[in-house]
Amino acid sequence: xxxxxxxxxxxxxxxxxxxxxxxxxxxxxxxxxxxxxxxxxxxxxxxxxxxxxxxxxxxxxxxxxxxxxxxxxxxxxxxxxxxxxxxxxxxxxxxxxxxxxxxxxxxxxxxxxxxxxxxxxxxxxxxxxxxxxxxxxxxxxxxxxxxxxxxxxxxxxxxxxxxxxxxxxxxxxxxxxxxxxxxxxxxxxxxxxxxxxxxxxxxxxxxxxxxxxxxxxxxxxxxxxxxxxxxxxxxxxxxxxxxxxxxxxxxxxxxxxxxxxxxxxxxxxxxxxxxxxxxxxxxxxxxxxxxxxxxxxxxxx
Length: 301
Ligand SMILES: [Zn+2]
What we know:
Blueprint lengths: L1 H9 L1 H4 L5 H15 L10 H13 L7 H9 L12 H18 L3 H8 L9 H15 L3 H18 L18 H11 L4 E5 L2 H11 L5 E5 L6 E5 L2 H23 L8 H10 L6 H8 L12
Antiparallel strand pairs: 1-3, 2-3
The chain binds zinc ion.
């Protein structure tokens, strides 16, 4: 019955001349009831929710049913369920849920608060920017939209306001303060591409461990005692740190266009205004198509 009813609801406009509202309502309730069953994973229900939304748009009172509320409650459990590797897919899922929750009203605040939680950053930032793009026309005046925009903008401004690394410089923290790790930090901050450490095996292992987050190329020279560990910066990792900055600036530009009605964005305007002077012209066009910011936030010492 569940699949049949869903299929029916998809084709509903086609059949609407032959079906009474009473029968349609019964089918709607059947679908909602079946979607409340916990054995169906909530992620699989997002497209069904979009279909139900088409029916409730024509029959707005139907969303007042207790079972429909129960169904919506399922979507609020964990917003990270709807993540995909594709930011646009994640944003589309969240947009469908946002729309249904906003129309009914009970859970939209909880949902928006979850989207603003620190679990979303930095990995889900790109999807949230896409989501703001989908929401802006209809919900630009909503306080929930404004909260989400503020949190996303703050996170992106934090990344974009840090100057990109200069030349071969590498950013990031090393928590150990031993003499070898101090040399590592010096090397990372320098323009040197390679670092040598002639030391016993335990010291070489400790340094390799500290260097791991930086994705340096690591090699042990098989001659001399003790052996020598050689760490090398790669062009890719240096570039990826610079790209993270460029992406954050592009995101800030996009976010400025998505500013909620009546919101003050002086800091964002100032940041985008300054950054635009230093970025190549081509980076502006990538803002339109790629809003994905998946790079980790790079911290300054
Ligand atoms: Zn150390």
